[in-house]
Amino acid sequence: MRFSGPIPLKEYKASIDSLMQATDGVFSVAFFGFAICVPLILIIFKTVR
Questions:
Q1: Are 2 and 10 in contact (CB under 8 A)?
Q2: How far is CA 27 from CA 6, 8, 10, 41, in A?
Q3: Side-chain half-sphere of 3: how many Cα atoms within 13 Å?
Q4: Sequence spans of domains, the chain
Q5: Measured between alpha carbons, how far is 33 from 27 in angstroms, rounded to an integer?
Q6: pTM for the predicted model, two decimal places
Q7: Inter-residue contact 15 to 1 (CB < 8 Å)
């Protein structure tokens, strides 16, 4: 991948697609992690209190 000069459209679209897939993966993991951790934290606080 070149960092200077004109970039071919095909290469540009491939990098944007790769970035979108990586971002989608991060958001999926964050959502499921949040959905799993919040109930666990609430259960722990309930038992400690």
A1: no
A2: 31, 29, 26, 21
A3: 0
A4: 23-49
A5: 10
A6: 0.59
A7: yes
44 residue type, one letter: I
Tokens for 5, please give them: 């000069």
pLDDT (tens digit per residue) in 1-49: 556 778 888 999 999 999 999 999 999 999 999 999 999 999 999 999 7
* Number of Cβ within a 10 Å radius of residue 30: 10
pLDDT at 38: 95
- The contacts of residue 15 (CB under 8 Å, 6+ apart) are 1
CA gap 11, 23 in Å, rounded: 18
